[in-house]
Predict the structure.
Amino acid sequence: MNNAGITRDMTFKKMTKADWDAVMRTNLDSCFNMTKQVMDGMVDRGWGRVINVSSVNGQKGAFGQTNYSAAKAGIHGFTKALALEVARKGVTVNTISPGYIGTKMVTAIPKEILDSKILPQIPVEPARQARGSRGPDHLSLLGRSGFRHWRQHLHQRRPAHVLRSRLRSVALPEERWKTSFG
Amino acid sequence: MAQQRIAVVTGGMGGLGETISTKMADAGYRVVVTYSPSNTKYKSWLEDLKKRGYSFAAFPVDVVDYDACAQAVRGDPERVRRRSTSW
């Protein structure tokens, strides 16, 4: 599971080479670095599963995330190309592309950015907490009341509700992962 | 499965990583998490997860560093067996 990732969000105008490199290396190069270590063994055994965690923003782009979006789009390409190479050897390579989940990575985004740039693009019920994680206090989310209520919920520290998610592959137990673990 | 499979989760202590790791353990995998060498909270995370019934092997790996990844994975099977029995 190539899951490790970071953000260095800022407009392209403000972005330095270091900000670009840090995100490309941690989010994209890491997929090569780790997968390279295990792929030969998987092929030899005739079984293996590689799952790369990309992001919705790899496909749609995101304000302030030229580096992150590029790295995540790169993961898609890496995944599809490698999948073609090893599929007949019994190894699958897949990508999961979460949307906004209530992890520290997302809650670290300033409220005004969330409200002005991110939330308006999400039609319904965004930003679930990763299922089963504890996250910041009371971060479990609300069903139909939506993300704005979730933020309010954070402040009021009400008991958490566990609700449906549009990010089913990550969030719903009855949904299988995109890759079979057979 | 005849032999317990190993799931390696990079960034396994993070927001999504923790959920992925526990789900994989629930699915019967032996889970190995890697975490950033700069992570200072790995011990308390492991203890915390242990209280929740999860015994994970954990290794600091800088995933940006190819050689570090190679070293971590090469040395893994023995270390995983050894470490996971002590956790």
